Amino acid sequence: MPLRPGRLSVQARLILMTALLSLASLTGVAVAADLIVREKVESEVYQSTQRAASDWIAAMDTSTPQPVTTAEVNLLQLVDATGRVVAASRDAAGRPPISTLWPGSDDRIKHGRECANGECVMFTAFRPSPQEEEGLWGGASHVVYAGRVEPPVLAGWNLELGLAGAVLVASALVTGLAALLIRRTLRPVEVMRDLIAEITVTDLGLRVPVPRGRDAIATLARTVNRTLARLEEAVRQQGYYSSMVSHELRTPLTGLRTRLEEALIYPGVDRGQTISDALGSVDRLQVIIDEMLLLTRVRTSSPQQAERVDLGALVRDEVERLSPAYRPRVSVDDAPRVWGNRVQLGEVLTNLLVNAERHARSAIEVSVERADGEAVLTVWDDGDGIAPDQREQVFQPFIRLAAGRERDPGGSGLGLAISRAIAQAHQGNLAIEETPRGTCFVLRLPLAGEHEPG
Fold first, then answer.
1. 434: exposed, middle or buried (C-beta count within 10 Å: 0-12, 13-18, 19+)?
2. pTM score, whole prediction
């Protein structure tokens, strides 16, 4: 079966990628080194052969002295125009001319390589100047060949094979070191994976260890812990909502079942009235279900169909639509605008106005203004007010204070919870603030000019 990168672990893929990259880069370095070494050695060989040829020509006069060889250059020959070897060093004696390469009078120095019988000779063909040829041989052309056997480093593939071996060894070392570093780096991820695998819905309290520093893995660990915290809170809220919903739905369902059973068992029961009462219970169930769905939707998603909303205009429209018994006194300052869902913000204002009308004695005030870069909507009533230790409780689902149950026995206790959820979904907040008398609900939202939607 062919090896597919997608089937490898992240660690294996990183190690494989490191091996390939190191092999490719080291191969490039080896190729460059091969070219540099060859050029360097060849240059040194030709410099030494050219120097040996030049020294021999300089030592000639009317006679032809025996050439002086060196440890590097041991093959020297003087060849005339007919191809006859006139003089030669001991190692070059008895050999045919090293080469047939014959430099011209305008380019008197040539370098070359000749191979025969499995041996290659690198040489310099040096032709004396016309004046030297005239003085030494009456103008007859001669060439001095100075050469040496090709160095082993240049012969065959010795250099390339050596560099290839060095590349493989170096690549193996780099890959091994990288594998150790990658395993050490990814070790926290393995720990996180093992801990997350142990987490269950019934035990969401575990948290992954956060490595020191601010690298990607530390950031991942912090994000995982924040996600686990949100998940734990969501499960806790789900359990709380489930218990509260089951409690709130059980009462109307029990009453509905009792009335229907009475209508079946007792012939004298007014069935028309029973059906009417049953419809009332069904309506209450429908209200609770609808409001719970709205609360869930608001808590789990961003506002849909966001637009620029004029809070002042929204307040005037809602007050006109509701026509409460106590006509609110409306005060709008500079008509602040916010980004949001007009229907949801209208739902918040409706809940606050209905709540104020339920508890007010004679007056309701609604104000809209700008303050500290926010739009501030205030709804105040002159009722009995809410005790400081109960001001957060009223925003919990199905929590209703005694005064609220007396004034509206059929309420669901979800209106203020929905209102706060909508405020938070709009990057704002809804709270009860201190006031000398009555109750003051304050909705704060970012201004549209400073908080553009994503």
1. exposed
2. 0.48
